[in-house]
Design goal:
With 583 residues, this protein is α/β, with parallel strands linked by helices. The chain has 21 helices and 15 strands. It is 55% helix and 18% strand.
């Protein structure tokens, strides 16, 4: 299954509009100097977030340009990739095999660049985050990363696979728990005196607030309403009594008829003449409705009058309660809801402080217990690292011998340190190239060519060691990592790259070595020509055996087949000798 399906460059440097189908297996990119071989590798690098200056790479006369990849991800790729894409809202249309195609582009203008996946804009940081899961690009510059201790530790731990990852996750989980417990204990010990003062204050405040039994955040509004009613009780009773009298429900002077009596008289008088005027019927109906409403008003006034409480003592009690609440609001408010919230938070803080003060031994015991657990999981991780370090050393040592470095020694050193989130050791690669040389840190003693071969040896060593082991397919790109090698070393590099491709990965290689190129499953020949005063490059991908032989002849001698028959025979022999299996 291929990872990379297509590579495109539009208005980029010497390329005007180039779209290339990328096949499975190992592909060698070759051609004359300046034709754009490394530019194609750079394009892949740019897509995954490498620095790029639009002003320098845009084709002359063009204000816009782009580079693009069509990349297929599978269920075997790390779940981090799938989760990240879904979190960005990127449309992922699954195939019947549950794979998904990513149309990734980086568009350039004079003012900058923009990344897109399936039409959705993403950040440069996002693309850099995907890079470790989808792309492995190795060049002379990659050896700088190889010299970093953190990368060396990552290489060793990655070699251990899923089983080893569980050790790493256990260490990180327990370490974070231990760190949090230590921080809690340290905070307690450093703030013990201050905590005692805070405890005293909280107790007084909580006791005070508990005494008021606060429940409703609207209690103060309800108190004000009832206080206002009690304060005007006599006026209310007088008004209600007067209203009842007017309704005929109270005592009135003999010469002062009630409203209901007056309406009753009017109703009788109109009823007497109703027969003479049909239009009076609805008027009488309305009049009866008004009388009924007034009776209801009278009953309501009676009920309100009964509810009025002439109780000076309750008024004093309510006023006292409201004064207390107003004081609490000034202290803990500004609203009663804020006071209640302060009480709840203070109660919780008080409970926490009382627990910590009464259980310092419990905190210390927790730290001791977690320290022991951390040591245990770190010991497990150390033993696992020792085992996989021994295996990886043997694999790399064998590869270095094949890469014309028979006297080289490679050693993985586990330097002990205090336990941290990644164990209790720092991983360092040690190296010596010659007999009698002392093993020293890889970056201090290895040359650029030696570092390149170590990097390749580590890559090949990381292939699955057990038949049937499932591994996500990845795109490997090698840009002139065979620089400084020749003969048997170059031949072994070719076979190692071929092995990587035979494991199911896609491998793109820029090389000037004929023997390395001969190991490829297919070849691209990048050539340039001048059209109307402008240089334009193109890529020929469908090369027949004769074309490949011509290419190898050129790499071997710098001449064409007609000029150098010996080199042509050498090229033919290389093709037979390095012929890869079909992938």
């Amino acid at each position: 299954m291929m990872s990379l399906h297509e590579l495109s460059l539009t208005h980029i440097a010497v390329f005007d509009a180039q779209r290339i189908d990328v096949p499975q297996g190992m592909t060698v990119i070759a051609g004359e100097a300046g034709a754009g071989k490394s530019l194609m590798i750079d394009a892949i690098d740019w897509i995954f977030g490498a620095n790029a200056s639009a002003k320098e790479l845009l084709r002359k006369g063009c204000e816009r340009g782009s580079v693009g990849l069509l990349y297929e991800i599978t269920p075997q790729h790390d779940a981090t990739v799938w989760h990240a894409l879904e979190a960005e809202g990127i449309d992922l249309e699954r195939t019947e095999h549950r794979n998904a195609l990513l149309d990734i582009t980086r568009d350039f203008t004079i003012s900058g660049s923009r990344f897109r996946i399936n039409g959705t804009s993403v950040s440069r940081a996002f693309m850099q985050g995907l890079r470790p899961y989808l792309l492995e690009l190795q060049s002379q510059h990659s050896t700088v990363t190889l010299m970093q201790q953190g990368y060396q530790q990552h290489v060793l731990d990655a070699y251990g696979g899923m089983t080893h990852r569980r050790y790493l996750e256990a260490v990180e989980r327990v370490y974070l728990q231990w760190k949090e417990a230590v921080a809690t204990l340290n905070a307690y010990e450093a703030e013990e005196q201050e905590a005692g003062h805070r405890l005293h204050v909280l107790r007084l405040q909580v006791q005070e607030l508990e005494r008021f039994q606060l429940e409703s955040p609207e209690e103060d509004d309800a108190l004000e309403e009832e206080i206002n009613r009690l304060a005007h009780a006599e006026q209310l009773k007088s008004a209600y009594a007067e209203g009842q009298q007017l309704m005929g429900l109270g005592d009135l002077p003999d010469d002062a008829p009630s409203m209901l009596d007056a309406l009753s008289v009017l109703s009788k008088r109109l009823t007497q003449v109703e027969g003479s005027e049909k239009r009076l019927s609805p008027v009488l109906e309305q009049l009866e409705a008004v009388r009924e409403q007034l009776r209801e008003v009278g009953h309501q006034l009676h009920s309100l009058n009964e509810d009025v409480d002439l109780n000076p003592q309750r008024l004093d009690d309510l006023q006292s309660r409201l004064n207390d609440l107003q004081k609490l609001k000034r202290l803990y408010g500004p609203t009663l809801a804020d006071v209640i919230r302060y009480y709840e938070n203070s109660s919780q803080e008080l409970a926490d402080l009382e627990f910590r003060q009464s259980n310092p031994d419990s905190l210390k015991a927790q730290v001791v217990d977690l320290s022991q657990r951390l040591q245990s999981v770190c010991d497990d991780l150390t033993q696992a690292r020792k085992q996989i370090a021994s295996d990886l050393e043997a694999q790399v040592q064998a590869s270095l011998s094949d890469l014309a470095m028979p006297h080289a020694r490679f050693k993985i050193v586990l330097d002990p340190v205090e336990p941290y989130a990644q164990g209790q050791e720092r991983v360092n690669f040690a190296f010596s190239a010659n007999v009698g040389d002392e093993l020293k840190s890889l970056g201090k003693v290895a040359s650029g060519g030696e570092l390149s071969r170590v990097l390749l040896a580590l890559t090949v060593a990381s292939l699955p060691q057990q038949a049937g082991e499932i591994q996500a397919k990845k795109l490997y790109v090698f840009d002139e990592i065979d620089t400084g090698t020749s003969g048997q070393a170059a031949k072994t590099i070719g076979f190692q790259l071929q092995r990587l491709a035979n494991a199911g990965h896609q491998v793109l290689v820029v090389t000037h070595q004929a023997v390395v190129a001969a190991a490829a499953h297919q070849h691209w020949w990048v050539h340039k020509q001048v059209n109307d005063g402008a240089t334009v490059s193109s890529v020929k991908t469908a090369l027949h055996r004769d074309d490949v032989a011509d290419l190898l002849t050129h790499l071997a001698s710098g001449e064409d087949s007609q000029s150098n028959g010996v080199s042509r025979q050498f090229a033919e022999a290389l093709l037979d000798q390095m012929k890869p299996c079909v992938v």
